[in-house]
Amino acid sequence: MNFIFINPPREIKSSNIWNIINSENPPLGIALLAAIWDQQGHTSQIIDAATLRLSIQEIITGISPAADFVGITSTTPGISSAGMIARAIREKLPRMKIIMGGVHPTVFHEELVRDNICDMVVRNEGEIPITELAKGTPLNLIPNLTWRNSQNEVIINPDSSKPVDLDSLPFPAYHKLPMHLYHSALGAVKKKPSIGMITSRGCPGKCTFCFSAMFGSQIRLMSPARIIDHIEHLQKNYNIREISFYDDTFTVSRKNVAQLCHLILSKKIKLSWSCFARVDTVTPELLLLMKKAGCHQIMYGFETTDENILKNINKRTDLDQFHKVLNWTRAAKINIRGAFMLGNPGETIASMARTIDYAKHAGIQLAVFNITTPYPGTEMYKEFSGKNLILHRNWDLYNLAQPVLKLDTVSSEAVQQYYYKSYRDFYLRPAFILRYILAIRTFPEFLTYTEAALKMINLLFRNIFQKK
Ligand code: B12
Questions:
Q1: Which of 275, 419, 441 is CA-nearest to residue 449?
Q2: Is any ligand 1 atom within 6 A of the Cβ of residue 301?
Q3: Domain ranges across the chain
């Protein structure tokens, strides 16, 4: 049986800062599923339309009518694109079985099947359901599956009783992907080629803005030995020299990270890397070891500098921890990328101004400011939906660059204005610009940063200065 997996194209508006951040990442979820499908003796293809910038028409042309299944992955802002692909397939190939998966279909599984957008949705983790489908298991026995039976009834099968063991998974089917096109975010890479990797699932945190139910609250880790195998596979076959670990909290197990660092050092693996972390998961010793093993940048989710807002979003961190971790990370000579949110419950103009000011003076090298977006499935979405305080449900706009929450403490116009102000204040500082100019070593670097700077100036000019 032949399975075609699709990563839908995404349109990032030029008014969105993510247009400048500009990373290209492999769709690891469907690449894993393609590898599993093939392991069962079938064939598969991956169309990474997001990276290849394919139009819906080009995607449809690439689908063989002889395929048995088309699988589409989707996030919330990707769902309208995913829906368009599904509709176009329905028109051209009405007998094709369409399966959807990923964060957004996991929440809206019933509607998507009921409204005949697709035939099946795989909720949460896809590895076990896809293995069962490949083995020919009857649909009613496949866990995590929502489907339509011959009487047109929507059937919601029970959840899988066992979580996926990450060490047992094959490598994602990298050979089916346009590997030469992937690279990590601007400012996050020291060496090229670079690529993103995920080594854990689940999160013990209960932040109200995060859809933690996707992979459960129990953290599951890939063993350090398996991570090393994976790195060596990428180095040997694709010459990868830098990895961005995209785990929600890479440092969730200090023991695992320390073991991984020791292995990188003892095996003399030449690798430059970065990761995401929570401020309450690192120690000075661990940071020194990470630096020794090649880590050059950590992104910490600070979110806000207002202790009440930290409580409102259940972040379970405080300013005292911020200060400590900033000092420890600087002492370890690891660069810091700060992630901040604007427009959380309890936000005011004063609290946004304080957060931006903090970012400017915290001694961090890069900052990402996002507008708080209540993704479906999160506690925040439930709470604000219940109170009728969600401004709109146009999923295209759930892109972290426009306000979605109606707050009684600050207007959405002010949040939008402070969003652009945050980038202007952080990036258009003479000290920041000078540091980057001095850090430029090569002509391609010069071109990349000049392009980013021009895009940033254009974006800020259109969004701030012209409106005044
Ligand atoms: C890397 C990453 C990115 C990368 C690349 C994504 C890519 N090419 O896959 C980039 C930087 C491009 C990115 C962009 C965005 N991202 Co992002 N990203 C992630 C991150 C950190 C990892 C994704 C990943 O590889 N996961 C590991 C794989 C194994 O999991 P998976 O993809 O979910 O796949 C599994 C299942 O979902 C299922 N499955 C998935 N698809 C399918 C399809 C079929 C047919 C089947 C059967 C099963 C199935 O099976 C897979 C294996 O178990 C996640 C957080 C996370 N931990 O997952 C956020 C996350 C997906 N991103 C998020 C967000 C908000 C964004 C952006 C909106 C950010 C922005 N400012 O624009 C954009 C949206 C882009 C878009 N239009 O879709 C949110 C999504 C929330 C939501 N409801 O949509 C997440 C969940 C982070 C979070 N906790 O808030 N992201």
A1: 441
A2: no
A3: 2-156, 187-427
